[in-house]
Amino acid sequence: MYKIALLLLVILVSRSGITVSQPKTNPAGIIIKFREGAAFGQQQRIVKNHNQLRLSDEKDNALLPGVSLALFKENNFLESQVDEIIRELEKYDEVLFANPLITTSGGQFSAVLGEFFVRLYSKDDYSKLESLAVATRTKILREYEYMPGVFILSADKFSRGNAREMAKYFSETKFFRYASPNMMFTIDACTANDPYYNRQWSIENTGSPQQYNGTPDADMDVDSAWTITAGDSTIKVAVLDSGVDTLQPDLIENLLPGFDATGNNSNGYPNTTYPEDGHGTSCAGIIGAVANNSIGVAGIAHKCKIIPVRIFYYVNFGGTIVPYSTNQWGADGINWAWQVAGADVLSNSWGIPDSLFTILGIDTAFSNDALNNAIDSGRGGKGLPALFSAGNSPDTFVLWPASLPSTIAVAATTMCDELKTFNDCSPENFWASNHGTGLDISAPGVRIATTDIKGVKGFSGGDYFLSFNGTSAACPNAAGVMALIISANKNITAIQARRIISETCDKTGGYSYNSNLLYGSWSEELGYGRVNAFAAIKSALAGGADLENAQSENTGKNFFIFLDEAGMINVHYYLPERGLVSVEIIDVPGRVIATYNKGVQEKGAYIYKIHPKISSPGIFFVRVYAGGVNYGGRTEVKKFLYGLQISDKE
Q1: CATH number at residue 612
Q2: pLDDT band at 649 (very low <50, low <70, confident <90, very high)
């Protein structure tokens, strides 16, 4: 049986745009888990017995998560041939397991590791987990330290299948909330008196030649916002990325102790092997570079603190330099950031095209659970805003996790207040921003001056990089504004902060903001618009009205959700014109658990009483597609519900 490998390709969106067009997959090599103590020379001798393979060099294999990579010398292998090579490799006592490395024509890679995660419904289900582990010859390693009820299991060559196959088997028993494999995955990087301040058009756009002759005032009004607040030293932004240079002179004053989720104990410091390792340092500088220190640049929220969290780094895969991570590294980074470091905002310049989920067999249940848990429970229960890059392609949908209802998706604008496209006013015609379905807000993402790894390492070979770009730059710009919002009013919830940053956006670009969503008028190009820090802070100081009141006041005739006394979900929405209507119920791991297609409905207000069939209480998201208008919101179900009822038109 061919063991299908998975690789979460995370697109970290900085300099180059990628158009996803259903790439084909093929096996590119095999990852091998050798027994502890198997020297590199011994590994080489085993791999050399198979003429089709060549082992990556010792330096690169040392960077992988406990496995070694052997690449095929040719790329025309059939699945059956790969299966046979794996069986031969697993005959060696030194080999614990071997799984294929899958690549796409677009250069994305995936491979399943030796672990998978299982979340129980309750502690009483542990006996079922034990019995199933014995039956499948898998091992329960430990309970996951950050998420009670989640257990890590291992699968090797003696198990009934690899970690992905075992996760699928455990999931299909319906005994558990979910089972999800741990995968390794490539990442495609999405990238005051301070001397470079006059280049920071995102803060104050004068339209000068140094700012690429943009449109005056096509900025986030950060200079005006600073007249109220430049942040608060108790507010902390976690930058989940390739690590942050903890010795960067323009950052060091604002850096808190960091975390290396990759297990290298670097305290959040990046590798310095390749220029792209500067990605996280550039993201951090946009948010929190120290201002008025006579060097470099000024961060959007330069009075706030930065938590460096390294969740990926770069490695040479067959001659191509790519960043990569694993499911557990991402979850560990997120969980550490809010549970240990007490982060107030998460900034994430990475994502995965939904189109690759099926192609590479990506399972995000565990990752979504960790992320949504942070968003719901962070900041002492007030909630933790999580901002994600929309992506660097001209596609009319945003990447995952930006596409999750709980996250904030950020597209990129130019210095002329327009969506970044291949034909905009900027001097960069080689990339374009994702937009459309799932987009929330937009922020500057072209030629952003920021920090770089100190010295000759990093993008520029100096301490600063003046041309950082992509939605990798747009995301920390927006995250910096989010930090200012929470600095202005520490008592607001994550949902209120999200509403504030969305409702106060400027409707720029001359686009048609003709869709009415939860936080006002919306356009496919820029979402709710380009972020305005000054307006957002003023709104935060006004108190941040309760979400339910905001829904009733601003969009009550369009969309809101409430539970009736019977515990049924009532979805109220307005259909502005005759059109097709469908309703989706989505659980915390991001899976659609129910879809209700209502066909063509006439213009008017509707209430659906939805009694979804769910396996346990919890947080659920409701998404309504109504005649070209999309609505979204969330609700909490506190009872076990079965069956379905839908009311007539209101």
Answers
A1: 2.60.40.1930
A2: very low
Number of Cβ within 10 Å of residue 619's Cβ equals 16
Given a contact cutoff of 8 angstroms between Cβ atoms, the answer to whether 88 and 55 are in contact is no
**Structural domain boundaries enclosing 606:** 556-637
The SS3 assignment for 604 reads strand
Beta bridge partners of 281: none
What stretches of 438-558 adopt beta strand conformation (E)? Answer: 441-444, 448-451, 464-468, 515-517, 520-522
Angstrom CA distances, 403 to 353, 386, 456, 607, 636, stand at: 9, 12, 37, 25, 20
258 φ/ψ angles, rounded to the nearest 5 degrees: -105, -170
Asked if residues 430 and 16 have their Cβ atoms less than 8 Å apart, the reply is yes
Please indicate, yes or no, if residue 539 is contained in any of the structural domains: yes
Domain-embedded: residue 70:
yes
8 Å CB contact between 398 and 437: yes
Q: What value, to the nearest 5°, has the Cα angle with vertex 47 and ends 42 and 49? A: 105
Transcribe 106-175 into DSSP letters. Answer: TS-EEEEEEEEEEE-SSGGGHHHHHHHHHHHT-EEEEE-TTSTTEEEEE--TTSSS-HHHHHHHHHHTTS
Same domain, 595 and 543: no
pLDDT in tens, 324-376: 889 999 999 999 999 999 999 999 999 887 777 777 777 889 999 999 999 99
Q: 402-443 pLDDT, tens per residue? A: 999 899 999 999 999 999 999 999 999 999 999 999 999 999
Q: Model-level pTM?
A: 0.82
Residue 26 and residue 16: Cα distance in Å, rounded? 24
Residue of 155 and 76 predicted with greater confidence:
155
Place of tokens 């084909």: 24
565 and 575 in a single domain? The answer is: yes
Does the pLDDT at position 518 exceed 60? yes
How many structural domains comprise the chain?
Answer: 3
Residue 150, both tokens: 């989640």
pLDDT mean over 277-284:
96
Specify the range with the lowest mean pLDDT, choosing from 103-117, 371-385, 528-542. Answer: 103-117
**In 352-452, alpha helices (H):** 355-360, 365-377
Contacts of 107 (CB under 8 A, 6+ apart): 186, 188, 320, 322
Q: What single-letter DSSP state applies at residue 214?
A: -
Q: CB neighbours (10 Å) of residue 87?
A: 11
Q: Are residues 524 and 565 in the same domain?
A: no
Instruction: Say which amino acid occupies 580.
Output: L
- Binned at pLDDT 50, 70 and 90, residue 511 comes out as very high
State residue 38's pLDDT score. 93
Contact indicator for 93, 35 with CB cutoff of 8 Å: yes
Query: Which 8-state DSSP code applies to residue 329?
Result: H
| Same domain, yes or no: 576 and 628 | yes
Please write the tens of the pLDDT for every residue from 584-610.
Answer: 877 665 667 778 787 888 777 777 776
Last residue of some domain: 537, 554, 571?
A: 554
Residue 51 CB coordination number (10 Å): 7
Q: Which residue, of 104, 125, 152, is where some domain finishes?
A: 104
Residue 579 maps to a domain: yes
Specify if 606 maps to a domain: yes
Distances (CA, A) of 348 to 13, 149, 454, 629: 10, 26, 22, 28
